[in-house]
Specification:
The chain is an all-alpha fold and about 120 residues long. The protein has one domain (about 30-125). The protein has helices at about 55-60, 70-80, 90-120. The model has no long low-confidence stretch (mean pLDDT about 75).
Length: about 120
């Protein structure tokens, strides 16, 4: 966000979902919908990128890595989310944030999505 690069400096409310009411303004020009995806192990610096899912599906020949990881290290990598703000967090801190994230999604978003499906809003995208 800025050159300081520290956590907790700003509060962004842009992830809220305003009601889809014809009477409200669209926000066109002021809001942009962004699809957020987690970072891959390669993007996080945890993998050489020698093998990728697309390579697995696109070809029959894959050269395996000689790098060996203990199960604990693999589990640790899986437990720390791929969100950019989490890549330097320890697994325990990352899990606290991800548990809160999952609880909030289930509390608010899943109910909103279910309600829109009940009203015949069409398929989930």
């Amino acid at each position: 966000m800025d050159c300081r690069g520290r956590d907790g400096q700003f509060i962004f409310t842009g992830s809220s979902v305003p009601s889809d009411d014809i009477a409200r303004r669209t926000g066109a020009g002021r809001f942009v919908r962004v699809r957020q995806r987690t970072m891959t192990w390669f993007e996080r610096g945890l993998s050489s990128g020698a093998v990728s899912l697309s390579a697995l599906f696109d070809s029959s020949s894959v050269t395996p890595s000689t790098e060996r990881l203990e199960y604990g290290a693999i589990l640790e990598r899986l437990c720390v989310s791929g969100f950019p703000a989490h890549i330097h967090r320890n697994p325990a801190d990352s899990q606290i944030v991800m548990n809160a994230y999952a609880q909030e999604v289930s509390r608010a978003d899943l109910h909103r999505i279910a309600a829109s499906q009940d009203r015949g809003a069409g398929p989930l995208q």
